[in-house]
Amino acid sequence: MKRILSLLSTIAAIFAFTACEDVPEPYVLNTTGTTSTLLNETFASSLGKFNSKSASGTLQWKNDYSSAVITGYQDFDGNGVKENQAGETYLVSPAVHLEDVDSAYVSFSQAINYEKQTIAEDHKLLISSDYANDVTTATWTEIPISFNGVGGSFTFVEQEVQIPESYIGKTVYLALKHTAHDSYSSTWEVKNFRVQRGVAGEQQPDEPSVIEGEATGTGTLEDPFNCVAAINYINSLGSDVESSENVYIKGKVVSITEQYGTQYGNATFYISDDGTTANQFQVYRALYLGNTKYSSGTLLKVGDDVIVCGKVVNFRGNTPETVTGKAYLYSLNGETSPSDNPGNDDNTSGNDDNTSTVEGNTITFSAMGYDNAQDLNDKAIKVGDATLVFSKGEGSTTPKYYNAGTAMRMYGGNTLTISSDKTIKNVTIVYGEDYNGNSYYPTAENSVVSVGTYDYNDHIWTLNATSGVLTRNAQTGHFRIVSITIDY
């Protein structure tokens, strides 16, 4: 992630408004001085500028469930049976500059599950001053960490450890090293990884951090914060401090964690100034246009230009975001009131009837506006010239959409029927990633297609027909279908 810049401890923020429609005096940051935060990576939506490096084996750290995750126990060969795989895998930080600090410490939250016997040997925090893109040739020093409260669940436990004095004054790299064995492996999840000036366990001064990038705007309707300015402002509030007034923030939608739907009426999504993940800001459970719960109207899609209005908070001191229930989508591509036509220009969720419609040849289920756990049994989904129908079939559970994994779930006995007036050449299906050793994609043992052939490596179904049926014939587990693309 971006290296944190320095700033003066004096910050002026003058506000003279009591509602979103009022106009405050400009917010001012003085960016000289010293910041306490040297590295901050939440792993909320990606590994950031951390890199997964293997010393042995083929295992990789990945981003899942808003954390950095690694496991050596999963279905590696696609036969529907989980197995262990050995490997030593490092998650390496970007360079951390300690040249001008007197002391520094590392903090992060970790959860470890399924550990059998060698927890301290299998999970290490390391530091190096000579790392050069090869973990096997670098000189690593272990920084001992605590394992109290971890090992048998996915409960996160906070960790703070001091960086050895011998590394102060140098450019260093931190690494999380995971070891998996042939006969067993843990699952290790890490989030909110930070490096800060000072001593572990001591209360640090409230010094706001400033991220790289041009900060513009004063937080008013006439002059909204861009994402860089918004993050800088929120960082100045201190840990878990909620803004006293509402602010406006503009940006482009980067990704959608929870789409607007009628069950909860809000959405969670990321925005940034340029539509990339750089300096992205989380809009957390924001209400819909008009500061109301969503009932119908245009849905979000990646690339949309939005303005949000509401209170903001520096959650746990490391996650700038809007406050749940106290922020809303002020405008969507210039529109400030809900449209009469549910769905967006590309996707129409059609939650009020049995039909959903998508323009083009690809459907991404997280963009459809489905409610969490929404039952889609026997509901037609129009994708361009094709029709998709998920059905219960001979199973006991109906197919549903879930926010967890942002995917359609096909359970044992469920079917997916795809049909068109045209001849369908290929259907490419993207599935959710493995998690905790569970896989959510078809194999030759747990599925069958009625026509054509299915490539279980690339998950391309070759039909050369006007219709076909994919069936999950295994009675346990489920598929998680993230998106489907149809080619003619």
Describe this structure in words.
It is a single chain. The chain is an all-beta fold and 488 residues long. Helices cover 3% and strands 42% of the residues. The protein is built from 2 helices and 34 strands. Strands 22, 23, 24, 25, 26, 27, 28, 29, 30, 31, 32, 33 and 34 form a 13-stranded mixed β-sheet that branches. Strands 3, 5, 6, 11, 14 and 16 form a 6-stranded antiparallel β-sheet that branches. Strands 4, 9, 10, 12, 13 and 15 form a 6-stranded antiparallel β-sheet that branches. β20 (305-315) and β21 form a beta hairpin. The two termini are 41 Å apart.
Which key phrases capture this entry?
488 residues, mainly beta, 13-stranded mixed sheet, 6-stranded antiparallel sheet, 2 helices, globular
Strand-residue fraction?
A: 35-45%
Strand count? 34
Terminal residue distance: 41 Å
Helix and strand content put the structural class at mainly beta
Helix content percent band? under 10%
Annotation field: number of helices: 2
Instruction: Choose one word for the global shape.
Output: globular
Give a short account of the largest sheet. 13 strands, mixed
Please state the CA-atom Rg, rounded to the nearest Å.
24 Å
As residue ranges, the low-confidence spans are: 1-35, 340-353
What is the oligomer described by this structure? single chain
Mean pLDDT: 83
